[in-house]
From TrEMBL:
The keyword DNA-binding does not apply. It comes from Halobacillus andaensis. Keywords: Bacterial flagellum, c-di-GMP, Nucleotide-binding. The keyword Nucleotide-binding applies. This is Pilus assembly protein PilZ. The gene is ypfA. Residues 3-91 form the Type III secretion system flagellar brake protein YcgR PilZN domain. SUPFAM superfamilies: PilZ domain-like. It comes from the Bacteria. The lineage of its organism: Bacteria, Bacillati, Bacillota, Bacilli, Bacillales. Residues 100-209 form the PilZ domain. GO terms for molecular function: cyclic-di-GMP binding. Gene3D superfamilies: Electron Transport, Fmn-binding Protein, Chain A, predicted glycosyltransferase like domains.
Length: 220
């Protein structure tokens, strides 16, 4: 299931934590009971993080079947392979929990989006092809493919039914890139990594409003 090079997201398991801290790393090696990762990078700051032995996480990764899998793990030590790595516990493939990716309703919609890369001076504006409370698909600039796992600060413009416009800031990670059927355009699937819950609820409300409008049109 896990393959070398797989991108893994780590969430600190801490009591009474208001804002969940998330970190990105890559799988360097693995055995039946252990995984070895490069030093994690905190998503918000993009700075390398250091952890003591015994630090516990909830880990998740995207499987080849398009589903997200998660497991609980903890830091067991530091090792030197080709690069410095952390050794974490691994419960085995049988203990992995599969998470349904469609936990939020996804709708086809075109809203304005501004994007700024976390790494390098990449900036562009575009529109979505679909949207949900957990992510979106955006048309890529000039037909170029955005690198997988690249992080962007996005600003979404939500036009609500009451005439109000809401500007939603979200940190997103590019999951994959693909050609749109019947079009020369390509779209990047983006997973929301850091999103204020109030803003997530606004996105869900917008999706619900659009669904209701589509149902009304079908009745006419």
């Amino acid at each position: 299931m896990l393959k070398v090079g797989t991108s893994i997201t780590l969430e600190l398991l801490a009591d009474k934590q208001e804002d969940i801290e998330k970190f990105k790393c890559r799988l360097v090696d693995h055995s039946e009971e252990h995984i070895f990762i490069d030093y994690p990078v905190k998503l918000i700051t993009q700075k390398t993080a250091f952890f003591f032995e015994g630090t516990q996480f909830q880990a998740s990764f995207l499987g080849e079947d398009g589903s997200v899998y998660w497991f609980e793990t903890e830091v067991l030590g530091r090792l030197k392979k080709n690069i410095p790595v952390l050794m974490l516990s691994f419960p085995g493939n049988a203990a992995l929990v599969r998470v349904q990716r469609r936990q939020y309703v996804r709708i086809d919609t075109a809203i304005d989006v501004a994007a700024k890369g976390k790494e390098g001076p990449v900036q562009f504006t575009t529109v979505t092809s679909d949207l949900s409370g957990g992510g979106m698909a955006i048309y890529e600039p000039n037909g170029t493919s955005l690198p997988t796992n690249q992080l962007f600060d996005f600003t979404l413009v939500l036009p609500m039914n009451d005439g109000e416009y809401h500007y939603i800031d979200v940190l997103g990670s590019v999951v994959r890139s693909s050609s749109k059927k019947g079009s020369h355009l390509t779209a990047a699937s983006v997973e929301f990594v850091e999103l204020n819950e109030k803003h997530r609820q606004l996105i869900i409300q917008y999706c619900f409003e659009q669904q209701m409008q589509m149902r009304k049109r079908k009745r006419l």
